[in-house]
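Researcher: We plan to redesign the surface later, but first we want a full-length starting point. Tokens attached.
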């Protein structure tokens, strides 16, 4: 049996900023064909009356040359980053070393980190953005009593932050099946997306196929099949089965 973890990522649309410089003024004679020899006696008068922009007389029909110096374009400074750390423990108080911690935000890519052997984790995040923090299981995690999809909180950070010890609650085995109204089993053909809601904050997007998944609290199951969508929200307080019927 196979369990997968998928994330609905929202991509950041980045725009570049280019500086635009002015064009230098062109030099031309009075008739637009070249520079004529000047009379020594009138040369000083010409110099006194020549425009300060150093440009010659424009020929009728031509677009005047720009004489402005290149302008400076301000480049937005990069957003500051902050370090967010903490540790995960299970319901028994033991460190949680499996799975991953997802920091989900818009419009940036999510930041995903894995806990160390002692359950600690650390992530570099963008200051001031709102992050939905979710613990999700990784590939091939064993049944360990820890929720495979669990929203920790929705938080914003403006400085380095230690979240301290985060205790995950007890989770229960949930068998998920998909079938038609006639009873045909579609479980191996249809992916079921699972999200968790904690204190009004929803996150996570695990995909389960086959193996039981461990969950707790308010969980939403959704699946698509032949252009139709089925969705069911269940409060998990014990081991149970959930069936989506098309």
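Model: Full-length starting sequence:
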């Amino acid at each position: 049996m196979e369990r997968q973890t998928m994330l609905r990522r929202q991509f950041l649309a980045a725009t570049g900023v280019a500086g635009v410089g002015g064009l230098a003024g062109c030099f031309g004679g009075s008739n637009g064909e070249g520079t004529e020899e000047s009379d020594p006696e009138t040369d000083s008068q010409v110099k006194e009356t020549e425009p300060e922009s150093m440009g010659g007389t424009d020929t009728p029909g031509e677009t005047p040359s720009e004489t402005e110096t290149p302008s400076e374009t301000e480049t937005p400074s990069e957003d500051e980053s902050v370090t967010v750390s903490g540790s995960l423990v299970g319901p028994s108080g033991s460190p949680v070393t499996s799975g991953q911690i997802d920091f989900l935000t818009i419009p940036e890519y999510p930041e995903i980190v894995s806990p160390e052997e002692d359950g600690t984790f650390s992530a570099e995040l963008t200051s001031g953005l709102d992050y939905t923090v979710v613990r999700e299981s990784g590939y091939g995690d064993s049944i360990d009593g820890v929720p495979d999809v669990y929203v920790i909180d929705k938080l914003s950070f403006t400085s380095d932050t230690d979240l301290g010890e985060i205790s995950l609650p007890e989770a229960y085995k949930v068998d998920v099946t998909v079938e038609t109204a006639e009873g045909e089993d579609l479980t191996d053909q249809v992916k079921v997306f699972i999200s968790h809601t904690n204190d009004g904050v929803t996150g996570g997007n695990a995909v389960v196929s086959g193996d039981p998944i461990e969950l707790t609290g308010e969980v939403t199951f959704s699946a698509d099949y032949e252009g139709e969508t089925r969705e069911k929200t269940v409060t998990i307080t014990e081991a149970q089965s959930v069936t989506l019927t098309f």
